[in-house]
Structure formats: C-alpha cells, structure tokens
Amino acid sequence: MTVGNISLCGLTVIPVRAHHDDTSEIVTQLFFGEFVKIIQTHKQWIKIENLHDNYQGWVDQKQLLPIHTNHINLTSYQNGYQADEELIISTPWGNQKVIQGSPILSLEKSFTLDHYNFTWMDAIPTKSKGGIAQIALSYLNAPYLWGGRSKYGIDCSGFTQTVFHQAGHFIHRDASQQVLQGKEVTFEMQKEGDLAFFESETSGKITHVGIVLSNQRIIHAHGRVRIDRLDEKGIYNEQEKYYSHKLYNLKRHIN
User: Fold this and answer.
1) Which sign, positive or negative, has the C-alpha torsion 15, 13, 153, 138?
2) Domains within the chain, CATH numbers bracketed
3) Which has fewest Cβ within 10 Å: 83, 86, 142, 190?
4) Within 16-142, where are the H helices?
5) Strand residue runs (E) in the chain
6) Which residues face 206 on adjacent strands?
7) Of 156, 172, 222, 253, which is the active-site residue?
8) Residue 220 is a catalytic residue
9) 0.85 surpassed by pTM
C-alpha cells in the first residue's frame, strides 16, 4: 500500500493501535465501510488517518482494502449510519457482519464499490433515527473497552462519538478533543443531549465524558454503559454511594 492512497475497512471491526506492534494499546477501532488515508508504512503495518474524524493510528495492512478510483465521495457518509444491531453482507472475501454504528455504504440490495461487489443478505440497513438520548440508551450495558466503539466493547468518548454520528452530528474521537467543540452551558441550563466532561483531580486533564439525560441523569461508559446521577459536583453512583467523576463543564454540540 502506498502513502497518500485511500483504503476501506472491509471487516466487521478492526483495532487501530498506538504503535506498529500487535501488543500496542488499541486507541480506536474501524468499522466496516470506513475509509482511511495511508500516511506512513512500516513493514506490514500502515499508519492511517480515519477520514471521518482525522484520527490516526496503526493498522495491519492485511485488514484493509485498497481503493483504486477517485470517483467516490469518500468523506460524506451520505447514507447515514446503521441502526440495526447486526446485519450480514456478502463480499468477495466471504460474508461479513456489519454492526450498529457502521456507515452505510449503500441502501441498494446489491452494489459495487470500486471493483468490489457487495450484497446485503437478509435486509437493507436501517438508518439511525431518533434523538441522542434514544440512540444512547440502545447501548445500555455495553461493556467498557479502552479504544472501543461498539456494543461489544466501548470507551467513554467512543460511546459519545458513535452515538452522535448515528444522530448525524460529527464530533471528534477523544474527550480531550470533544471538550474543545460546542458551546459551554451552565449546569442550570443543561438539556438532554448535552455532553458533560470530567477532569482528573490530580492532573486536571479531561478524562471522561458522558451524555446528559433528563432529570439530572447521565449515561456514560464506566465499567459498562450505565446511567447515574449528575449534580454540580460530578457523577454520583447511588449503588456504591460515592462520586466516580468530578465535573469540569457541560457543552452543547446540538442547538
């Protein structure tokens, strides 16, 4: 694969790592149908930039497909994001699962992308509908996974990003990036769908993010995607009777 070229994720979900090594930490994931730009190579590893959020990391080149045409609108994701929990698509390399939150490559039963032929096996994907809270609740009890973005494992900012993408709103990948977007709102002016950010009490860095629900509740990925109480101090775990996170601020990304 050549630096500057575009590739496609053709597997269900693949890891993107901090360094070119299988033991390196996962910093994010790619879903089926996401496009990336190659920015560096190292043996069988390629450093990629995800075209929907410009996030960078290392992927084993065997897990990506080269794209040979310039006639594809790679960055629009104009068909939206899949709401269905899991669908099967036929590809030249066999059937693949496509999971919730993946970009929809086509709403046609059969379609061709570059020189690859695809067919949805059972059903055509359903685009995500509803508001931020409704989509967020569909991830309830998904296990926490550092670098994860899916129901099979998700981290706090992967959760907020994926939910917002499904609702048609693009935000960055990490909490430290997401906090720089949107308009700050006071605690009293919060509304459902705002993002709440939390800081480390030792470093002062932004280390956590969640989605505000009604009645001073928050849904966030902490051990699992869960709902807790939110007050001006932070997130209060009513089961364990302690504050798990210290509130930094609230941001409105959707007017």
Assistant:
1) positive
2) 1-127 (2.30.30.40), 132-252 (3.90.1720.10)
3) 86
4) 132-137
5) 6-9, 13-17, 26-31, 35-42, 45-50, 56-60, 64-66, 86-91, 94-99, 110-113, 116-120, 149-150, 153-154, 183-185, 195-199, 206-213, 217-222, 224-230, 234-237, 242-252
6) 199
7) 156
8) yes
9) yes
Reported as a single tens digit per residue, the pLDDT across 201-254 is 888 899 999 999 999 999 999 999 999 999 999 999 999 999 999 999 999 998
- Alpha-helical regions (H) of 43-166: 132-137, 156-166
Tokens for 163? 């939910």
Which residue among 52, 208, 222, 245 is the active-site one?
208
**Tokens 């048609």 belong to residue:** 168
Q: What is the pLDDT of residues 5-27, one digit of tens each?
A: 999 999 999 999 999 999 999 99
Task: Find the catalytic residue in 20, 52, 220, 245.
Answer: 220
Q: Is 68 a catalytic residue?
A: no
